[in-house]
Design brief:
By secondary structure, the protein is α+β, with helices and mostly antiparallel strands. 28% of the residues lie in helices and 27% in strands. The strands form 5 sheets. The chain has an 8-stranded antiparallel sheet.
Length: 309
């Protein structure tokens, strides 16, 4: 019988689901260990995180832990695969538009700020040696792993929970990033598609059934704030250093794992009108929602609102 545990981590809602509720405690403990480790390594909101110390050391080479090294490698690979649409060197840009602290306590309205088009330094500026476990950041380059680290956490957490339960089917949902592992329940895992990952379960909402991999949603509608009369959100267009201004407010993608799904969903927001062709040429399935609420399904995303992928 299914077991479910809810909570919060990394500034987002979290849900852990197992196909055998007797193994739920072991699964949740394993997930919590992974999320604590990711927070210690990758948070930009903690002065004592490893990422903060790396950013503070910009201009020199620094040794990093295997976990942060892995997270950086994932972020750089995402940048390469998206042609720079998803870029980890947006740290300074995202602060300049007002996202300077944990979103849960950040002021949603504030005084006018001057916005200036300034392309980010670019992922090629980051020199990572996975062999030696070192990273070199040029001066004034600041890393933000918000586009990939949460999805990586979901993937790692699902794998850890699978091992901890001895092979029980596991789903980990972390703020819109969903990873599954092990044997799914009969018919697959039903995943509700929502712009807000904290939305309650609704039988009338669109959902898809998956048996493996990951599903991720990127949206401009939840992490959103205003400065003066200007509405801003957290998905940065690296070519401008400002909030992405394309036609899509929300994109959901299914892929081989949660990192791949999240990378594609975020890239689609940034790529704008070119997103559908980009998604389909890569054999992905996606659901895109315009600012007017129109829904476009790309690749093999089903037309029915309750279907298998």
């Amino acid at each position: 019988m299914i077991g479910i545990a809810d909570g919060r981590a990394l500034g987002a809602s979290i849900r852990v689901v197992v196909t055998d509720r007797r193994r739920l405690a072991a699964a949740k403990a394993a997930v919590d260990r992974v999320l604590r480790a990711i927070d210690d390594a990758c948070s930009r909101f903690r002065d004592d995180s490893e990422l903060t110390m790396l950013n503070n050391a910009a201009g020199g080479e620094r040794r990093v832990s295997p976990l942060l090294g892995h997270a950086l490698a994932v972020a750089l690979r995402a940048a390469h695969e998206t042609g720079g649409a998803v870029d980890p060197t947006v740290g300074t840009a995202i602060k300049k538009i007002g996202y300077v602290g944990d979103f849960d306590v950040m002021a949603r309205d504030g005084a006018h700020i001057e916005l200036k088009v300034t392309p980010v330094p670019g992922w090629r500026a980051v020199q990572l040696s996975e062999v030696h476990g070192t990273v070199f950041l040029p001066k004034r380059v600041e890393i933000d792993l918000g586009s990939t680290a949460k999805a990586l956490a979901a993937d790692l957490a699902a794998a850890s929970a699978l091992e901890a339960t001895g092979g029980c089917g596991v789903l980990v949902s972390l703020g819109g990033d969903v990873a599954v592992a092990g044997e799914p329940p009969t018919g697959g895992w039903q995943i509700q598609i929502s712009e807000d990952s904290a939305a309650p379960i609704d039988d009338e909402a669109e959902s898809v059934m998956v048996t493996s991999g990951g599903v991720a949603t990127s949206s401009t509608t939840v992490r959103r704030w205003t400065r003066g009369e200007i509405a801003l959100h957290h998905i940065i267009d690296p070519s401008t250093g400002l909030s992405a201004a394309g036609p899509w407010r929300t994109v959901t993608v299914a892929a081989r794992d949660c990192v791949a799904a999240n990378t594609a969903a975020t890239a689609a927001i940034v790529l704008g009108h070119g997103a559908i062709e980009w998604i389909e040429t890569r054999g992905l399935s996606a659901r895109l929602v315009s600012h007017q609420g129109d829904v476009v399904r790309a690749g093999s995303w089903p037309a029915s609102i309750h279907s298998n992928l």
